Amino acid sequence: MPRRWYDEGEDPDYRFTLANERTFLAWLRTGLALVGGAIVLAQLVPPFTIAGLRTGLAALLALSGTLLSAFSYRRWARVQWAMRTQKPLPATRLPFVIGWVAAAAGLVVLLVVLIRPL
């Protein structure tokens, strides 16, 4: 039977393991919030003056939330493995990518609000 990553190395201090788990759960909450925002945008917000913009923004949020949720497990496992084997913690682009997605979504909403006819 092949060795699994969680059988390698030593058990890290449980406080670090629990902190890693809390970070994983925070990433999941963020992913779910993005998907929830996409649902609200697609179902409850009236159409924007620019055709297809509401649907496109909802799709961006849904895709971002889905990918974030999927990649958050990979991040958790890589950090857990690094702690078990006493290696440096791996770098991640998740905060950079999600930050830019949120900024882009916010900019689109701001533009929609500013160009909306009174």
From TrEMBL:
In the bilayer, the protein is annotated as: Multi-pass membrane protein
Q: What is its main location?
A: membrane
| Coiled coil regions, renumbered to chain | none
Q: Where in the cell is it found?
A: Cell membrane
Q: Which InterPro entries match?
A: DUF202, IM_YidH-like
* Source organism (scientific name): Amycolatopsis cynarae
Protein name according to UniProt: DUF202 domain-containing protein
Q: Name one Pfam family in it.
A: DUF202
Instruction: Tell me the keywords, alphabetical order.
Output: Cell membrane, Membrane, Transmembrane, Transmembrane helix
- On the tree of life, the source organism's domain of life is Bacteria
Q: Where do the DUF202 domain residues begin and end?
A: 15-81
- The portions of this protein that span the membrane are 24-45, 51-73, 94-115
